[in-house]
What does this fold into?
Amino acid sequence: MMGRMRAALFVAALAVAGPSVAGQSAEVSQFELDNGMKVLVRVDPRAPVVVSQVWYGIGSVDEHRGVTGISHVLEHMMFKGTDDLEPGEFAEIVQRHGGEHNAFTGRGYTGYYQQIAAEHLELLFRLEADRMSDLALDQTEFERERSVVLEERAQRVEDNPHALTQERLRATAFPSSTARNPVIGWPADLESMSLDQVATWYGQWYAPNNAALVVVGDVDPQRVHTLAQQYFGDKAPTELPPRPPRGEVEPRGEARIEVQAPANVPYLAMGWRVPSLVTAEDPTDAYALDVLVEVLDGGRSARIERELVRGSAVASSAGAGYSMLSRTDELLMMAGAPAQERSVEDLEQALREQVERLKDGEIGAEELERVKTNVRASEVFQRDSMFYQAMRIGLLETIGVGQDAYDAYREGIEAVTADDVRRVAEKYLTDERLTVAELVPTSVESGSAPPAPASDPASPGGDAIGH
It folds into this structure.
């Protein structure tokens, strides 16, 4: 089953309350410091622990050619010391106090998180505030981390034929905008990247007015606000640079590419250019596209698994994916590997037939209700994790849809009809919007076969990379 971010990225709505509070509800309290930094708090008293996350509104869609991958490289450098801390000391302090920490970079954001006993929240704020403005950028550490990222790219992309195929597909599907950028960066840009470029990127984007502090756990919102003001309130805002335009040239016809790489079996990836919740003129389209993907790949009873993998056995594995929470247009993906004795052409034909069935409106009431039941269940499961509660809050805030997106999303999904799914299939799943990438296996040396892909067959791929 396709593991998409959709179900993990929503939280309860905010309501206005109080002169010093930008927004507040029974679930989430939101404050804004005078320097523009946002503070969002959700109380969860089930255990005496807290999750603290700092999100910066900077990612691969903000990068231009020549510095692709720089947001991810800077994420690595954030663990390499400050004016007051030695390299690695941040991690050592958190671990000594019984906490866990890490970071991630995505297309539209970079985030840093810790989970620790609630009594140590002030310590986390002090550490994060320190590296927001006083990062030590050392040449030796930079060269070491750049090498680490290049090796990471080799393992995750160059040596993973499915990921490599999806990367090339995305670059073809988005020929003119930064939506084509891989989060991890292009090899030539990483190899030529300088410490001065990283320092400039840090100075431009790591500012309180480009940051959101998210706290979930056994805390008092007003105390969190007070501590945030104490540690982050004196950080000076910056004039943020203009971001690259989001617009992309209109698709003018089907594009096809062939990717040759060492692999044991062929692989097919098909991607249609579609809007995200941010870019859709009508949010109903995004909700309907999400339901459409769930119809295709929402568990063992969904169409692709039931009909193409276990039914006709045209695919050994296949799936569909769509990430609706993106600052740019996205790809709706269908992909998979053909079964033995079946060809890539057979698989493509079978996937196209699934699309045509959607356009014909072949969706029953029971099938549609299964999708909506899955959405309701996902909400319950995600609310059980403090970490993913914080992830939902941070992502919604950072991509710009705001905290009321949760209620709007749930209501939007509930309102989707079979005719809505048919309509968006006809509107967006056209050959004019389609890019097809075929992995053509080349020889694999004995004992050196590429590892199995870490992602599902049709994962949109590269949405976020952990430290």
